[in-house]
Amino acid sequence: MQLTLPYSGIILLTGPSNSGKSTLLKRLIDEQQILPSEVISSDDFRIMVSNIEFIDWRNRPKEEADGLFDEYQQISQEAFDMMDALIESRCRLNKLTFVDATHLQPDDRKKYISLARKHHVPVMALVLDTAQETLLERDALRENPRGSRRIKQQFQVFKREKRFIKKEGFTAVYMIDANELANVEIYKRANPVEIDLHEGIDVIGDIHGCFDEMIALLEKLGYEKNEEDLYVHPEGRKFVSVGDVMNRGPKSLETMMFFLRHVKAGAAYMIDSNHGWKIARWLDGRNVTLSHGDEKVAEEFTKYEEMNDAEQSIQLKNELKEFLLEAPSHYVFKKNNIPVLVCTHAGIKDEFIGKQSHQISDFCRYGDTDGFDEDGKPIRKDWFVHHKKSVLIIWGHDPKPQPLLMNQTINIDQGAVFGGQLTAFRYPEQTFAAVKAEKDYSGADNNPLKEWEKKRLDPPNIGKFINGYSVLTEEAGEIRVFDDTVKPAIDTVSHFTVPIEQLVYIPPTMSPTPNPSSLSSYLEHPQEAIDYYRGHGIETLVAEKKHMDSRAVLLLFRNETAARKYIGTGTLGAIYTRTGRRFFDKTTEKTVVSALNEDLQRAGYFDTNQTDFILLDAEIMPWNLKAKELISSQYAHVAENALLDRTILKNKLSAAAGRHDAIQSWLEEHHEKVNNALVFKEVFQKYCWDIEGVQNIQIAPFHVLAHSGETFFHKPHMWHMEKNREFARYSSFFVETEWKLIHDESSAEEVIKWWKDMTEEGHEGIVIKPEFFIAKNKGKLLQPAIKVRGRKYLNIIYGMDYLERANLERLKKRNTGKKQKLALKEFALGVEGIQRFVNGESLERIHECVLGTLAMEADRVDPRL
Amino acid sequence: MQLTIRAEGENAEAVSYLLAKNPNNVYERNYKGHLVRFFYSQFSKNAVEATIFVTPDPIELIKNAASAYDITHYINDREFAVSSIFCSFIRTALGTALNGQPKEDYKKWVDHPFPFQFSFGPVASSLSNSQILDLFEPLGFATDISRGEANYSFNIKEKSSARWITLTGSTTLQTALRQLFVLIPVLDNYKHYYIDEKEIEKLQRYGEGWLEDHPLKEFILRQSLRFKEVYSLVEKQNEEKTDKQDTAKTERLNDLRYEKIIDTVHSIEPKEKVVDFGSGEGKLSLRLGFVPGIKEILAVEPSESAAVRALDRFEKAKKKEEFLSPVPVWGSLFYYDERMKQKDIMILCEVIEHIDEERLPKIMEIIFREYKPRVLIITTPNKEYNRVYDMSDELRHTDHRFEWTRAEFEAWCAERSHSYPYDLSFEGIGEENESHGFPTQMCVFKRTEV
Prior knowledge:
The structure holds 2 protein chains of 2 kinds.
Chain A: E1 2-5, E2 9-14, H1 21-30, E3 39-41, H2 42-50, H3 62-92, E4 96-100, H4 106-118, E5 123-129, H5 132-141, H6 148-165, E6 172-177, E7 185-188, E8 194-196, E9 201-204, H7 211-220, E10 224-225, E11 231-232, E12 238-241, H8 252-264, E13 268-270, H9 274-283, H10 294-307, H11 310-326, E14 330-335, E15 338-344, H12 358-366, E16 369-372, E17 378-380, E18 392-395, E19 404-405, E20 409-411, E21 413-414, E22 421-427, E23 431-436, H13 448-455, E24 469-473, E25 477-481, H14 483-495, E26 511-512, H15 526-535, E27 541-546, E28 550-557, H16 560-567, E29 573-577, H17 586-602, H18 605-608, E30 613-621, H19 624-656, H20 661-685, E31 698-707, H21 717-730, E32 739-742, H22 745-760, E33 765-770, E34 776-777, E35 780-781, E36 786-789, H23 795-798, H24 805-811, H25 817-838, H26 843-857
Parallel strand pairs in A: 1-7, 2-4, 2-5, 3-4, 5-6, 8-14, 9-12, 12-13, 15-18, 18-20, 26-36
Antiparallel strand pairs in A: 9-22, 10-11, 14-15, 16-17, 19-20, 21-22, 22-23, 24-25, 27-32, 27-33, 28-29, 28-30, 30-31, 33-36, 34-35
Helix pairs in contact in A: 2-3, 5-6, 9-11, 14-26, 19-20, 25-26
Chain B: E1 2-8, H1 14-19, E2 27-31, E3 34-44, E4 47-55, H2 58-62, H3 84-90, H4 95-99, E5 114-123, H5 129-136, E6 142-147, E7 163-171, H6 173-187, H7 197-207, H8 217-225, H9 230-245, H10 248-266, E8 273-277, H11 283-288, E9 296-300, H12 304-317, E10 327-329, E11 345-349, H13 360-371, E12 375-381, H14 406-417, E13 422-429, E14 440-447
Parallel strand pairs in B: 8-9, 8-11, 9-10, 11-12
Antiparallel strand pairs in B: 1-4, 1-5, 2-3, 3-4, 5-7, 6-7, 12-14, 13-14
Catalytic activity (chain B): small RNA 3'-end nucleotide + S-adenosyl-L-methionine = small RNA 3'-end 2'-O-methylnucleotide + S-adenosyl-L-homocysteine + H(+)
GO biological process, one term (chain B): regulatory ncRNA-mediated gene silencing
GO molecular function, one term (chain B): small RNA 2'-O-methyltransferase activity
């Protein structure tokens, strides 16, 4: 007798003591049909919790018998609690468990049925039907006989219960005759939703009857029609549909038949879906209303029935019904027996992966919904924010213009039937292929793609931000933004920044060296930056000259039409500061932006690069352009006061020098102090020059962040600096930035010397970056850049006397920890926001990144770092 | 920060006794890292010159200050300029002279006038040279003011903001020092550092005998006492500033505008749910609280400081009868806010002109398409009327991003609402001028389908 068992779940052995349960399991283990760890026995647990397997209270005086009975009850209780906890863990982990206990009472069985349901695993009963005489014979032979009275009692209960077991809700019940026991063999089924990746797969989004587009896509992917009229791939790849192959489109029936044949032949897979389920139930004769394009499917069936004879039609309907009803809620694709990819229709929870149940099917069909909106449409909740496992999930259902990677999930429904495109995601290559739909087949008034596009630039929902929120970034995972900092940031956006649609990026803050210089006369030195990166396994570094100036973001469009497409307004571009404010006044901005546009057009930049815009991270000089008031009222004012004070004092001391030894040393001290003040005064003037009109404005772009089709975070900084050189050729506004490569000791020394020379002249310093824009060590993001400011320059940051020994010693105790953490978070938010902007995502999704950075900048950090 | 005292003439050497400092020694004290030092640069029978100066510890000085997270805080004039900090540092060193308590033998010199010269600085002051002269000349000093150097490689400022003051006159040491201890803090550009209560206590004592008759007594007291009332004073100054821009006329216009809106609201049915967008300090919301029939007022404002003031205003009014307290809502027109949906009346009173014109269409689209108020009321200045105020091209408020003529406003309202079911009516608020219309214009949008 062969028993077919599921790959996971609970197998309850049922039968009185001595019915042969343990003996059967022991044989199966011995024959290596099952694993010892798959068997859980209540007797074992009694021993484990109490050292006692069985207590015999027969033939004892009453008070002793009662006491022993109590003890046995208590031991059993503890043993079952432990055992059930273990079974539950195994269910969670999707493992198979044989439970070896009598399970004679209905409550004993119900407990496991509900446990299995809770964890979406099958539960089966193996009922061992053994005659009472055999039970009694065996009992007499065992070490701890249960006694005939108990055995007889148990047998009576078993006889009564046997009939009901089948109706209790088990996935399956096997009745085994005692005589058959020795011949029982186990066949363990594989997990039907787990599939080996083999030569790779191509996952196809919602087809919705767009048969021609599907064929075109398969051909594009390299599938060829063979003699049996099947589309197969020469490399052995297979294709997978995420469901909704029918409904709304022109050829739903043909598409369903196509998948029926291909799935049957093992050439393809298809997943269950909301429309598939509806049609299946309709075919099953259930009372369902066909609407939202499902009525078109029914029409196609009617036509088919007209063209073919009745028998053929009925057969097709039956076959399709079975096919649709059997389609699994999801598939798990495995590489080297490790799950790497999950395909589902509308969504899935992590704990559902690899399991099957009605509840799971329902979730996978419809996703996570939260009631209905005023127009009667389901309000879709973002199920994917809860996805924590590393496995990639591919899904469809919710048409979006672009396939987006969101929290390690990708939606590949690009609304083919609404005139969008049919998308395929290729795995393991992780690339996309798509075929544009011939037209909008839906005839629907509210085309979701158009609705989406229309609302793409709608103002973000304040409710999502105001109490604090999280951003899921690809580079640094979840980043929390707290309400106490987000409110001032919203205030800033409401009063001061450029329009939200143009505010696509706020540059991250930059940390100085994590450790102060080990040299006694320096606060900062390149060595510590180099050490930081080397310590994290980065050997190639780029050192860029840092300009003393104001950081700026330039968003420059090809023309006004292009701008309208991306930000909703016709403009040639925007230039804004690190706080999102317009860099220049409106008129100057227009002049600068127009001139830049002209220069770039002349150079053919937009055409050559096939882009509608460029997004640049830059520094704009001179410093006084933005900071004139600050320079006048702070730096110049302080310099004048210091010099006046110290010069007069020095003169007085020098007149009195002969009078006392102390005066001589005070004089020396003030000699030094006057020099400090002079250096201070000299330093800040280095970064300022007079500006007439826009002529003397210099812009030094150091990152080309994005073009309309791509971001450049995967490029090394050498590439970005080459671009910087290129820009300097195109426009007189753009200036080149000097830079050097560090790849060994001698180049490191050269950079240090270069830094020393330039900073002694008063230049601000350098920025040291890892070779690649995004650098990680052991999966953790590293500082994207570290600034190393010059000795002289730091006078205007830490005060003119900061290098005096006592001052420097104290300043070296500075803590850059918070600054570094903020830098990483803001960097990840910046990269994420730009990626979303380039992907054409909604304004709200872009803005949450920008707002996050603005909020972090509202956090309190020592501004001198 | 330093002060040099010079005395010449007969018995000038007696000044050293009054100072209680030995001419053959230097004086140096360390207070938490701040150094107070004193030395004689000249000493003879008939000529004495001594300098007292303070070298503060710059790092200690800025510790625990309120503006610790402002970069400019670290680079400032506090470690150089003479100020109340300077006075409190040198008070102990000059205690004998200030109190007129030298050794018994020299008491006779306490009230003896010498020909003195006091020079001190640098002075960082917002007072003009002539204001400074007005402070010292009534005390009998010939006053000389010089400036530091302001020679820069680029055009940044005309003259230095660091000044040096030299006073010459015949006076007693005690009186002169007391005068300096009162007037140095008066000169100084006070910023929120170092509130030294002792300075105030000393004011009365140090002012004895001369402050009462000083022509600028009121000013001196006010400047000195700003330490005590610094917060309320700052508040007052701010109010004064905004008040200056608002003439009595515009004050009246504000009231007229509120009255007009309230009248309009009175006539609208239903009016259960009202939103005051950009409610600022809550003046309009407060008035709405007294309109019968209103059951909910949302006062929406993104600025925390304004919202706090609005809350105070609502709290005070709560005691009055028949007052419905508005609910302050932290919100912004630049975001979508589902709490604003389906209200009876939405009001944008003097709000749109504070928003960049290019950002307005999106805002209006969300109001009409998503919020769908039954009635929307918008008010904004009428630019034509600026002629009546004798204004040329300037805007009425520094934060105004634009001001519109009647035709511009009407065209804008029509364009913004044309694809939505609203009837528009325009009215003026304030005193009408025959050719320029009303100072404020108002549009009432009424939804024609619900």
